[in-house]
Amino acid sequence: MSDKTIDNELKVYRAKRDITQEELAKEIGVTRQTINAIERNRYNPSLEIAFELAEYFDCSVEDIFTYE
């Protein structure tokens, strides 16, 4: 197994829009706990969630998530 991780800038993107975890969760159809877990790198989102987030923030998946 590799030691690579997926980091993200979700909290930064959310702050730029000045929205809460709850508001973002409702927009993309997940729970606030899911958004919190993604931001804290405790959960890697499915591709569907990653694309929903990118669409919501009008950016690419790679802008939010980086594989290191």
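That was protein one. Protein two is written in the same sequence-then-structure order:
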Amino acid sequence: MFDTFPVLRRAAVAVTIGAAGLLFVGCTTTGPKSSATASEKRQSLNSAADATLGKLYEASPQSKELVARARGILIFPDVLSGSFIVGAEHGNGVLRVGGATAGYYSTTAGSVGFQAGAQSKAMVILFMTDDALAKFRASSGWTIGADATVAVVNVGATGRIDTNTAQQPVVGFVMNNGGLMAGVSLAGTKISKLDL
């Protein structure tokens, strides 16, 4: 008697591996960006961070006042996420303190569950108190939800920022091509210092 279960299992594994390969075909370690010098990478990140802040101010003019009050601003211009059953996201960013670059960081997060696809988003995290900024800078790896809570800012229909959220020690904005994203959780996102 012919047992079809092993054949079906092999077919399912082959389809899963093939789909994952197609999803991550653009993720390669070779190419023009990998040959960029550290100085070029820093310049590129800073330019992208400036553009991200410009988009934030356009989407929510009131955010400019909040950014001006922040003790530190962590900007991730391009956080790429891809998933096929298991999801992962990664991006590089810059920390600015007093208007000057104070370091470069990477962000990573993962998720499990039925999902498929790829997308890009930008994150801006504001440290509103000296204590919150000091704890972040002293950490060797900072995880949202474990080391600190980041209150994602809600912007109303009138473009006004929710005042309760704006009073938290660490607040964040998440944007995609459509503008500010609402109802987003950043819990589990790990942020680590980069040597650039």
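Helices lie at 5-23, 38-59, 63-69, 130-138, 163-166. Keep this in mind for the problem set.
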